[in-house]
Amino acid sequence: MRFHALWMSVSALAVAWSGVAVAATADTAASNTGAGSTVQELVITAERREVNLQKSAIAATVLTGADLIKNGVVTVDQLQFLAPSLTVNNFGQGDDFDIRGIGKGEHNSQTETGVVTYRDGMATFPGYITEEPYYDVASIQILRGPQGTFSGQDATGGAVLVTTVNPTIGGGYNGYLMGSYGNYDAANLQGAINLPINDTLAARVAFNGAYQNSFDHVTGPWTGNPNLMWGGGRLSLLWTPTSSLKVLFKTDYDYLYNGGYFGQAIINPLTGKVNPTSSLFDFSNNWKQDAGDVMVRSILQVDYTNPQGIDFRSVSGYSQGKTTWQGDIDGYNSLVVEPKGTPALPNYEINESVDETLWSQEFNIISPSGKPITWVLGAYYDQNNYAFPVGRFNIGVPPGVFDEDLNGVNHTQTAAGFGQVSFNLPAGFQIQLGARYSYWSTFNSATYFVPEYVYAGFYQYQNQTESGSNFTGKAALNWTVDDNNFLYAFIASGSKPGGLNTSLDSGNTIPIPAPFGQEYVTDYEIGWKASFFDHHLQTQLGGYFNDYQHFQLIIPITDNPLLSTEVNDPNSTKLYGLEASAQARFGGFSVNGGLGLEHSSIGAFYSQDPDQPAAGVTCNPTTGPSSAKCFNLGGNPQTYAPDLTANISGSYDYKLTDIDTLTPLVSFAYISHQWGRLFDNVAEGDYLAPRRILDASMSWTHGSWTTTLYGSNLLNDYYISALLSPIEMAGPPRQFGIRVMKTF
Fold it and tell me: Average of pLDDT values for 481-505?
């Protein structure tokens, strides 16, 4: 398997560089006719000021709004096919979003994400409502590696910065309207318009709507609407009463009905073997399916620049959302026929609804750019509240007979101070020093109970608190060799808060497990960014080594293996790898590619397999001992950490007339196999096969109109997008259609 991964990486590089060779020929032809263009300068704002990607000590992929439209990107899981070292395993309204094998691996509200997403400067919900679509977006910046100085605690793996298009004062009435239709009756309509109000005030209104029939072929006595229906809008206001004051306000509303998240059992109850991927979209279901999110978010950013050029910035944010999911979580269905005389299989169904509110406030003081010494100072606070209302969070075994309900609240909060200073030295050298101190706390007030048997003592009240602090930062040495070459080396760190374990026993006989601790990642990284052929080709090359301490994981309880708790790996996990990416533009030809090679090794610890629980087994997480039922998982690869990620795309603009251009585009992405659990047990369904995604499109631009025929996953690769034990979720199958856009 590793030989296959190496072969694929060599092949990807060969394709990329052969594309550059072809492009060089195209560039020669273009220069002979006086035509040609260079790679667009890409800008990142990860350190609170605009910096050229090629002159920054950050491993990043930057996608412009035009890139998103060209590649048909509207959801977060599509990003993994455009950037190296990134995997998104979509299990519904939440995602296992991992960069370099670090992210979110446990599905609960107490385990924070390891890849934080910012929308217009505000951190978004860390667990739920992650499927919020992309429309009227200016850029998406995917930052790889811990971003502990500026992005905060939930950025141990990296961060994603999404910036939507701002209003333009004095820009007139302009915008776009785009509609598409494809198989599965997939219809989408989105657009935006800039509204100039006066010389100091402008507004922008954007909207998005989508409908799609379910990919699944479902039979059985189930109820619900399986089809996707999304609708949302955004209002933005920009006010600049003086040249030194800028006020930007944005508010988003999203209604995201996702139908039912149908998933087949990982293990077929009739055969005892893993279900084949060929049946991912065909199954019967015996329970109501329903899944949807509603969310509103408002952001206010105020910038005041004093006469000395120092920017005083405030970013205030408020989000309120509700996520609901009802479905079958045992994977059994009405097609399962049990042998006569055997007891009926239990029917596990879930009906959960969670309300979440997130407040945040950040203050920055930013020095002018281009000085011998530049600096940023900041302070940050957020409070994230989860509410589990009575009767809206229920697991039925089966429903109406034995229901396990959760009712209560969970509050988490973070306060931090941070700063970074950069010293510009002679001969192009620069030293950057950054640091962040964070204090976090979490509090539960909840009751876990069985309503049918409350009178018999089947309830347990949880009132717990946990808190901690951490110090993260970055020290970098950068060297601008010349206008075309930039070298860097740095040490960076990031941390993820700990949390509370929940009640295990509604019968109130088993104590609530102790809280789990925070994670900590230290990243050692070097890189080289270069430009060639008069900026027609730019490249990024880097290597990293991550020391990952106190990895948070869920394991069975030693004395009661049918129950589980979240703990920290007592030993260090190691992850290291190599990343390369390139962007080229020669005349009408453009090519983009990325490559990520990675190796991971979990720190030694012992655990029973929760899919094979056995009572009476001694299995201490630290000491074991190793046995047929107590596994030492040290050395196994990290979950959702493929050895190889590779992507390449190429397009060519054929100029037909002064107003007509024909552009074919082909892209291919490969993600090698992953493990959905740490036990690496193929027989239990832990193995996730490689993903091979081929997309293509043909666009005809006629003046302000662009018509595109598109196809995604043209190889119809049936792949498992995520494991949500004991079921597995499917990635999207082949899709195709037509898209029309009008700009004005």
Answer: 92
Residue 466 CB contacts under 8 Å (≥ 6 apart), including other chains: 441, 442, 498, 499, 500, 515
Dihedral angle computed from the Cα positions of residues 724, 730, 731 and 735, in that order, rounded to the nearest 10 degrees: -150
Residues 266-283 have a mean pLDDT of 81
Nearest-CA neighbor of 440 among 497, 519, 359, 503?
A: 497
* Among 138-152, 383-397, 653-667, the least confident range: 383-397
Rounded-to-integer distance, Cα 188 and Cα 571, Å: 48
Q: Are 651 and 592 in contact (CB under 8 A)?
A: no
pLDDT at 92 over 80: no
Distance CA 27, CA 181 (A): 36
Torsion of CA 212, 215, 218, 223, to 10 degrees: -30
Q: Which residue has the tokens 């609240």?
A: 409
Q: What is the mean pLDDT of residues 184-201?
A: 97
Mean pLDDT of the chain: 88
Sign of CA dihedral 358, 364, 369, 375: negative
Q: Are 477 and 490 in contact (CB under 8 A)?
A: yes
Q: Which tens digits make up the pLDDT trace of 636-653?
A: 999 999 999 999 999 999
Residue with the two structure tokens 């999404």: 162
| Cα 507 versus chain centre, distance | 37
Structure tokens, 212: 């799609």
d(CA 365, CA 721): 42
The pTM score is: 0.91
Residue 8 has pLDDT above 60, yes or no: no
Distance from C-alpha of 288 to C-alpha of 218, rounded to nearest angstrom: 12
Taking every pair of C-alpha atoms in the chain, what is the biggest distance, in angstroms?
88
Residues in the chain: 744
Identify whether the C-beta of residue 139 lies closer than 8 Å to the C-beta of residue 160: no
Place 237 in a pLDDT band, splitting at 50, 70 and 90. very high
Residue 186 to residues 66, 94, 189, 290, Cα–Cα distance (Å): 21, 22, 10, 19
Asked whether the beta carbons of 102 and 157 are under 8 A apart, the reply is yes
CA–CA distance, 55 with 478 (Å, rounded to integer): 9
CA distance 533 to 52: 18
Closest by alpha carbon to 707, among 667, 650, 744, 661?
A: 661
pLDDT at 105: 66
Bridge partner residues of 525 (DSSP) = 490, 544
Smallest Cα–Cα separation from 490: which of 112, 56, 175? Answer: 56
Q: What's the whole-number mean pLDDT along residues 665-686?
A: 93
